[in-house]
Amino acid sequence: MGEVDPGVDLAAVVERFLAEHDPATTDRLEFLRARYDAGLAWVWFPEGHGGLGLPAARQSEVDAAFAAAGAPDNAPRRNVIGLGMAAPTILAFGTEEQKRRFLRPLWTGEEIWCQLFSEPGAGSDLANLATRAVRDGDEWIVNGQKVWTSSAHNARFAILVARTDPDKPKHAGLTYFVCDMTDPGVDVRPLRQITGEAEFNEVFLTDVRIPDAYRIGEVGQGWRVATATLNNERVAIGGRAAPRESGMIGKVVEAWRSLPEKRTPELHDRLLRLWVEAEVARLTGIRLRQKLAQGQPGPEGAATKVTFARINQQLSALELELRGEDGLRYSDWTMVRPEQVDMTGRDHGYRYLRAKGNSIEGGTSEVLRNIVAERVLGLPPEPRVDKDVPWKELQR
Description:
It holds the Pfam family Acyl-CoA_dh_N. The protein is of the alpha+beta class.
């Protein structure tokens, strides 16, 4: 395919598309598939894979035009891991066959994805994982256990890192796969959280067979591929583009405006400080998402995610204090397995409890601060277990 003119009139392209696919009369899934095929899903992706090869900054034009027309979206909050982590990883490291197989149903939401990284014995030390993958002809046989897996109960596929060579240093013996969650050897069990829900799961893998065609990257390249995924994940969690005064800060400001009798100078000072911090974080997130869209996720995402977790926890605590005794109320402890996290659509008690997980999911804040110190600020690294492998080699 030829190069696309970066000055193309996207408004006209969308207008022609909408003339041929009326959102009011076209089946939702048919509409989304057609939008992907027209290159209007991720405009910065290559032609044939949901994009037009345009600058990522132009995506907002497309999204605004579709929203103004009342077109259906792909329910992105249901498939955060697929859209924010699996898709850019497959684009960067996958084969053409893998891109054709996975990207379209991922974007349309027909196939939900989850992430099989963390393990009970490894925690944030991903390179210390114990799940094994053993080659058997054109397949790999996988055995092990993963934990804290969001959306595993809804997922069709998972991104999986497993140890394929136990004799090599821990960072060097890993390989990255796509795991079919419908395999009979995959056992998903709920983990009930402090909120009463079970959005997380533990996943047991027993003789799960993965075709070698579902391997992403070369054998032994799993650490490099996983690092790219994690950089995308941290931006996806902490760098979401959103309007000003939306999200958690929006709920706190709403409470402040509706409860004048609860206001105090001290609470006002804290609210103003956090409002400024939330706005700075929002603008920083937009900048990082632009880098991410161009395939340039870096360690800066760790700082954004750490900031996101801290501000969310401080804001949710401030909202409880502002509400006084009503802040102690909690609406519903019913055990459910939700399809998505909805921080702003629930009550203040849920926000306060759920925000506690923000400093754990996507990498603990302690580990991410080390990443910021070493890979952003250039401070000396802490001693490594793999002393026979230079740190720079592990990052390749």
